[in-house]
Amino acid sequence: MDLTSLYTDIIFEHDKRPLHAGLREPFDAEVHHVNPTCGDEITLRVHLGTGEDGAVRVEDVSYDATGCAMSRSSASIMSDLLIGRTLTEIEPIAAHMDQVMHARGKQAGDEEIIGDGIALVGAAKFPNRVKCVLMSWKAFQAALVETRVLGA
Question: What is the CATH number of domain 3-146?
Answer without folding.
Answer: 3.90.1010.10
